[in-house]
Amino acid sequence: MANRSPSAFAGASLEDRLALIPNVLAACDAVAFAHANGVVHRDIKPTNILVGPFGETLVIDWARARDHARARRQRHRIRSPTIS
Description:
Layout: H1 14-18, H2 21-36, E1 39-40, E2 49-51, E3 57-59, E4 66-67, H3 68-75
Antiparallel strand pairs: 1-4, 2-3
């Protein structure tokens, strides 16, 4: 299973696919953490979720991600008054 996207298991046995459930849940946790911090990935798909050689789960390709919390802070920042 090392360094393979879950989509590589589309033709795998039910047992092999069920073994990926902890990795799917780990990917959900990673995305939930990002969302809790105002970051939206915007390109979640099976090829952007990898299972590493030790069973670790990686959510990759954050190039399209948007930091909504940062944008909100920038919109609401206090501007100093101008003196004429």
